[in-house]
Amino acid sequence: MSFAEDFNPEIPDDLIEEDEAKERNRKRARWYAVQVASGCEKRVKANLEQRIHTLDVANRIFGVQIPQTPTVKVRKDGSRQHGEEKVFPGYVLVKMVMDDEAWQVVKNTPNVINFVGAEQKRHYGRGRGHVTPVPLSPSEVERIFMQAQVSEPVVKIDMEVGDQIMVLSGPFKEFQGEVIEVSPERSKLKALLSIFGRDTPVELEFSQVEKQG
Q1: What are phi and psi for residue 103, nearest 5 degrees?
Q2: Domain of residue 170, residue span
Q3: Residue 196: is its pLDDT beyond 70?
Q4: For residues 174 and 209, is the Cβ–Cβ distance under 8 A?
Q5: Residue 2 lies in a domain
Q6: Please, are residues 193 and 199 in contact by the beta-carbon 8 Å criterion?
Q7: Distance (Å, rounded) from C-alpha 132 to C-alpha 158?
Q8: Domain count of the chain?
Q9: With contact defined as beta carbons under 8 Å apart, do 201 and 192 qualify?
Q10: How many C-beta neighbours within 10 Å does residue 18 have?
Q11: Which sign does the torsion angle of CA 100, 107, 120, 132 carry?
Q12: Residues 6+ apart with CB under 8 A from 140
């Protein structure tokens, strides 16, 4: 009989029990919204993930997410900048089993303000006071992550209906007007220009105009 055939190590019972407990916790875990300092979402995520590992609570905190959706920003020259936009700026989502230790790990992470939940004096609270964390409902979780998984990027531009613009080039150069329609997918807009004393809708390229004020 070879050594490989003879060697049959048994997994210690305590490790088996630990794995089973972790699986039970994973099934019980819920998503919670955590309010963080503005612009610190990624920093909080990195710090919290490190704390989960260091403080050995990976059996109760199973994930930290910043839901984001793809965006395309159209510049004034018509060029496009691809990026991502947070679905809920100022918040991170944490999947966890809520108990005192796990709560402390999250709450004491630098730049964390508080869990979103119910306050004693208000039905729904956000802030630094005492808050009882309330998990997100399954429908809320589904909606948030579906929004973050959209395949078509959201097109964003620097101008919107009602903005005052000046035409920089073309036959209407130096005319001023008001934006009445924006077509990001075509990189064009319509503006009302005063031509011969009458407001006339004119279609223009984004690169042809400059926002005023």
Answers
A1: -60, -45
A2: 158-211
A3: yes
A4: no
A5: no
A6: yes
A7: 40
A8: 2
A9: yes
A10: 12
A11: negative
A12: none
Residue 15 lies in a domain: yes
Angle (CA) 166 79 151, round 5°: 120
At 36, the pLDDT band (50, 70, 90 cuts) reads very high
- pLDDT tier at 208 (50, 70, 90 boundaries)? confident
Longest Cα pair distance anywhere in the chain, in angstroms?
A: 103
Residues belonging to the chain? 213
Question: Is residue 119, in this structure, part of any structural domain at all?
Answer: yes
CB neighbour list of residue 201: distance below 8 Å, 6 or more residues apart: 180, 190, 191, 192, 193
Q: Per residue in 87-121, pLDDT tens? A: 889 999 999 999 999 999 999 999 999 999 876 55
Are residues 136 and 178 located together in one domain of the fold? no
φ, ψ (nearest 5 deg) of residue 30: -125, 160
Cβ atoms 186, 74 nearer than 8 A: no
Q: Angle formed by the axes of helices 100-107 and 41-54, to 10°?
A: 140
- 192 and 119 co-located in one domain: no
Cα-based torsion angle of the residue sequence 124, 129, 130, 134 in order, rounded to the nearest 10 degrees: 30
This prediction's pTM:
0.65
Rounded alpha-carbon distances, angstroms, from residue 149 to 79, 145, 185, 199: 24, 6, 20, 42
